[in-house]
Amino acid sequence: xxxxxxxxxxxxxxxxxxxxxxxxxxxxxxxxxxxxxxxxxxxxxxxxxxxxxxxxxxxxxxxxxxxxxxxxxxxxxxxxxxxxxxxxxxxxxxxxxxxxxxxxxxxxxxxxxxxxxxxx
Length: 120
Prior knowledge:
The protein is α/β, with parallel strands linked by helices.
């Protein structure tokens, strides 16, 4: 987890939901080797990490939850777990345990309303 994110999670008043088993297709990464990523990473480093995670997934290892934040609403941005998210997608996983954080109660309520059929 990035140092700035750690600090923000400790200091800011945030609203949480989950963890819930949520469809991966709803998320977007913010980290990776593609042009325009908020947090760019060299392709060789990205690929090494993905390969290791894919192997772990195939071996049945338990991975931490993915942390997602609407940034900006309604985009569901993966804020922690971009490598895990991509590896899960490449391994054809459809859902994964996700913890959502919201900057205000209104975004949390909008999320719960929009995805009420998925979060029973």
